[in-house]
Design brief:
The chain has 194 residues and is α/β, with parallel strands linked by helices. It contains seven helices and five strands; from the N terminus they run H-E-H-E-H-E-H-H-H-H-E-E. The protein starts with a helix and ends in a 12-residue tail after the last strand. Its cofactor is Zn(2+).
């Protein structure tokens, strides 16, 4: 049985037995916060348990490394929508130790792309269009610095309300221990409506 068929078969049982009822909530986060975190498989449940969060408590935005790379990309848009439309009053950027993005080297990723059928011509067209693939595919050296960078981009974004605290933390993907990198309460700006 393929993985897709396995998932669909389980889903049918999930619906028939009304298992979804245990997860009923609204689209608004009960704890009024949004988290930007990594897509690492070890964090799927651990992060929520380590923070005492349950279904419905929080909005979660995930990407590789919890890195905000573009001030007007989809990650920042999601954070802004969480604040302005979905009633989140705080933002948490949570990276983790032993992150795969800390070991990413663009040349290795590009070689793996070629091995899976991406042509050098395609890569050249992208590079010639002004996309620096080496920069785009490079990871980070320090998870703490990466978290701090993302926090600063969010906090200083021209569309982010100054009264929204933006916190930065790093989680241990084995134990769930959280280390504080940036206390967002210390950097909250007065609400400037001018």
């Amino acid at each position: 049985m393929s993985l897709l068929n396995e998932i669909l078969k389980y889903n049918q049982t999930f619906i028939e037995e009304k298992m979804y009822e245990a997860y009923a909530t609204t689209k608004f986060p009960d704890k009024k916060l949004v988290i930007l975190t990594c897509m690492d498989t070890r964090l799927v449940e651990l992060l929520h348990k380590a923070m005492n969060m349950k279904n419905g408590d929080v909005k979660v935005v995930k990407n590789a490394g919890a890195i905000l790379t573009h001030p007007f990309g989809s990650i920042m848009r999601s954070l802004l929508i969480a604040v302005y439309e979905l009633k989140a009053d705080e933002v948490y950027v949570i990276g983790h130790h032993d992150c795969g993005m800390s070991a990413i080297e663009s040349d290795q990723v590009l070689e793996k792309m070629k091995l899976r059928g991406i042509k050098q011509d395609t890569l050249d067209i992208i590079q010639n269009a002004g996309i620096n693939l080496d920069e785009w595919l490079t990871g980070f050296d320090s998870v703490e610095q990466s978290v701090e960078h993302s926090v600063n981009m969010i906090r200083n974004h021209p569309l982010m309300a100054g009264e929204i605290p933006v916190h930065g933390l790093v989680i241990d993907p084995v134990t769930g221990k959280l280390d504080l990198v940036v206390n967002g309460y210390e950097n909250v700006k007065a609400n400037d409506q001018t």
